[in-house]
């Protein structure tokens, strides 16, 4: 097991944002985390990335996060935050190289070159980051994050928080195909927060659904993406079409939104004592 | 050829340019002044002491040399401190004065000037001519520690709190300084005014002895922070994701700035502008990577301060302009021109 999360709760101030979550992740598995805004997805991801203090246990390759040396942890776990803003004139290549180990800091680096071309930012190599578009910056950050764990041995974990939110459809597809390929070929375990249900249906091995800080459902795309569950979690009505490609597609209905407050409770959520 | 692929001047050529500029400025600085020296005099003093003109030898070894070295060190430390804080705060407007170190140092120095004959008479008698620099260093360190303690209340260093605490401490120290100014007599007023405008005029080997160890320490520790500071430019959480100990980096940077600037202010008074503008200038020309910005800021800052100091003692010779004034006079318009030419900060 690359990642095991056991009864993790996160509180910010007095409110409990993440409530008693259990989940695990095997090598090569692509797990996607769904849920409405404010469900606690990013907060859970931040707890696993070490940005927020939590109660409970988060183990990477069987060892508690707190017991890792930071520099070793960085070789096994890479994190792509929702937003990274760069205001200083760093070049694209300089930023990607920040992800590399210290020893790889001089001369040309094949890992960096390959990632930049695979994420379609090779032609921007010498451009200044503040002058890039939002989508280009997002691909750049993914390249930096992947460069960090690309050639590390052992169990690796990749945490992605809405890594396709600024991308056009072709680049969304490109990015997730790359992530999927890395998971399958290199055995990297991926935990990704996504909002696009159809991308999730297409690429995820397993889906986790969060609502109000709790894990409310877990399963394959076919099991999770049902009209009933979508209505229960998001409060909107949608049609789910089974595609010939073997995964479902969610088509929202116009005017299908009035049920946000009528959504049924979360039966599987254990209340905090 | 001389430019790198990003269209910027590469590290090696810029290093060569800055070092040659530093050598030229050092030569000009050491030869010019109320007692002009020729390069031949310098060579003769260095090669054969007994045969040379005793006055030239005295001027060179006891006046110009310590002044040159001190000027270079102070400029380098102020510029590097500015670069460190701008990286840490992710803000090109950050300046060594921001965390309260200059305000604390000047409050202590002015207290020594104004109260030296009354309440602080004992201190003056005990520390002699080092009373002022030691007090300034102490005052600067205390304010940094205070701001730091406030920012560290919850076990982690909050950069935003540090900034706000610095602003509050600056305000209080400024008010206390104003009170002392109000209380000062004419002679003290003149002396404290000069101190707040900065000067290398009295620089001697003893000032170097007091200030240099701290300033050199700051200059040698700073390059170790270059890589994590680059990560800081992407945001504080990214520093941790990349495997650096975020809190250790922050503490080291603040400590380096506190020690370095405290020592610099103690020996030369308040010299603004270098810390704000030099790193900015270097970033404009060479990019924001701290592995380039830190060493080149040190060299450019040192060179700039020595150049300003040489001008300051030539323009109204045999008197001297305060160097802080000189700095602002040359640098202000230059900086404005730079701002008008560029779009991205």
UniProtKB/TrEMBL annotation, chain A:
InterPro entries: AAA+_ATPase, ABC_transporter-like_ATP-bd, ABC_transporter-like_CS, P-loop_NTPase. CDD domains: ABC_Iron-Siderophores_B12_Hemin. Residues 3-237 form the ABC transporter domain. Its EC number is 3.6.3.34. The keyword Translocase applies. SUPFAM superfamilies: P-loop containing nucleoside triphosphate hydrolases. Transmembrane segments: none annotated. It comes from the Bacteria. SMART domains: AAA. It is an enzyme of class 3 (hydrolase). GO terms for molecular function: ATP binding; ATP hydrolysis activity. Part of the ABC transporter complex HmuTUV involved in hemin import. Responsible for energy coupling to the transport system. PANTHER family: HEMIN IMPORT ATP-BINDING PROTEIN HMUV. This is Iron complex transport system ATP-binding protein. It comes from Marinobacter excellens HL-55. The lineage of its organism: Bacteria, Pseudomonadati, Pseudomonadota, Gammaproteobacteria, Pseudomonadales.
From TrEMBL, chain B:
CDD domains: TM_ABC_iron-siderophores_like (cd06550). Its main location: membrane. One of its GO terms (molecular function) is transmembrane transporter activity. It is found in: Cell membrane. Keywords: Cell membrane, Membrane, Transmembrane, Transmembrane helix, Transport. The chain crosses the membrane at residues 12-35, 68-89, 101-124, 130-148, 160-183, 203-222, 252-281, 293-315, 321-340. SUPFAM superfamilies: ABC transporter involved in vitamin B12 uptake, BtuC. It is a multi-pass membrane protein. It comes from the Bacteria. GO terms for cellular component: plasma membrane. GO terms for biological process: siderophore-iron import into cell. PANTHER family: ABC TRANSPORTER PERMEASE PROTEIN MJ0876-RELATED (PTHR30472:SF25), FERRIC ENTEROBACTIN TRANSPORT SYSTEM PERMEASE PROTEIN (PTHR30472). Belongs to the binding-protein-dependent transport system permease family. FecCD subfamily. This is Iron complex transport system permease protein. It comes from Marinobacter excellens HL-55. The lineage of its organism: Bacteria, Pseudomonadati, Pseudomonadota, Gammaproteobacteria, Pseudomonadales.
């Amino acid at each position: 097991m690359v990642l095991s999360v056991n009864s993790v709760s996160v509180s910010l101030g007095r409110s409990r944002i993440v409530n008693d979550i259990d989940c695990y992740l095997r090598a090569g598995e692509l797990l996607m985390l769904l849920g409405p805004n404010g469900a606690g997805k990013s907060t859970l991801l931040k707890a696993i990335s070490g940005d927020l203090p939590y109660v409970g246990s988060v183990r990477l390759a069987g060892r508690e996060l707190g017991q890792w040396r930071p520099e070793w942890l960085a070789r096994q776990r890479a994190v792509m935050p929702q937003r990274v803003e760069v205001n200083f004139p760093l070049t694209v290549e300089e930023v990607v190289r920040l992800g590399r180990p210290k020893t790889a800091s001089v001369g040309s680096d094949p890992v960096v070159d390959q990632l930049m071309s695979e994420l379609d930012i090779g032609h921007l190599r010498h451009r200044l980051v503040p002058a890039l578009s939002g989508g280009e910056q997002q691909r750049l950050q993914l390249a930096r994050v992947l460069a960090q764990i690309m050639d590390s041995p052992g169990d690796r974990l990749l945490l992605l928080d809405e890594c396709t939110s600024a991308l056009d459809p072709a680049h969304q597809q490109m990015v997730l195909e790359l992530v999927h390929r890395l998971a399958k070929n290199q055995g990297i375990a991926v935990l990704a927060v996504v909002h696009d249900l159809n991308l999730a249906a297409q690429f995820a091995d397993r889906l986790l659904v969060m609502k109000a800080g709790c894990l409310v459902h877990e399963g394959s795309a076919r099991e999770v993406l049902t009209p009933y569950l979508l209505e229960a979690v998001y409060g909107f009505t949608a049609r789910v079409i089974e595609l010939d490609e073997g995964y479902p597609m969610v088509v929202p209905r116009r005017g299908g939104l009035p049920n946000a407050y009528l959504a049924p409770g979360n039966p599987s959520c254990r209340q905090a004592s | 050829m001389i430019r790198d692929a990003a269209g910027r001047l590469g590290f090696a050529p810029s290093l060569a340019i800055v070092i040659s500029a530093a050598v030229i400025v050092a030569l000009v600085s050491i030869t010019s002044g109320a007692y002009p020296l020729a390069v031949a005099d310098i060579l003769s003093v260095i090669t054969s002491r007994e045969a040379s003109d005793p006055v030239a030898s005295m001027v060179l070894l006891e006046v110009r040399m310590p002044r040159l070295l001190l000027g270079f060190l102070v400029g380098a430390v102020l510029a590097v401190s500015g670069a460190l804080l701008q990286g840490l705060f992710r803000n090109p407007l950050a300046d060594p004065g921001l965390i309260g170190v200059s305000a604390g140092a000047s409050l202590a120095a002015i207290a020594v000037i104004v109260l030296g004959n009354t309440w602080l008479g004992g201190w003056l008698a005990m520390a002699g001519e080092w009373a002022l620099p030691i007090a300034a260093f102490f005052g600067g360190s205390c304010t940094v520690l205070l701001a730091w303690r406030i920012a560290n209340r919850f076990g982690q260093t909050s950069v935003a709190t540090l900034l706000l605490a610095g602003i509050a401490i600056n305000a209080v120290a400024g008010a206390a300084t104003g009170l002392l100014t109000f209380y000062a007599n004419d002679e003290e007023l003149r002396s404290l005014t000069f101190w707040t405008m900065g000067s290398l005029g009295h620089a001697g080997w003893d000032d170097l002895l007091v200030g240099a160890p701290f300033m050199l320490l700051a200059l040698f520790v700073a390059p170790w922070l270059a890589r994590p500071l680059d990560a800081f430019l992407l945001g504080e959480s990214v520093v941790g994701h990349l495997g650096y100990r975020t809190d250790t980096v922050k503490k080291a940077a603040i400590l380096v700035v506190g020690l370095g600037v405290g020592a610099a202010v103690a020996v030369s008074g308040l010299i603004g502008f270098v810390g704000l503008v030099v790193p900015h200038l270097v970033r404009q020309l060479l990019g924001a990577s701290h592995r380039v910005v830190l060493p080149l800021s040190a060299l450019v800052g040192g060179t700039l301060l020595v150049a300003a100091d040489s001008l300051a003692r030539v323009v109204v010779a045999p008197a001297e302009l305060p160097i802080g004034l000189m700095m602002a006079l040359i640098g202000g318009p230059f900086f404005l021109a730079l701002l008008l030419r560029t779009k991205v900060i």
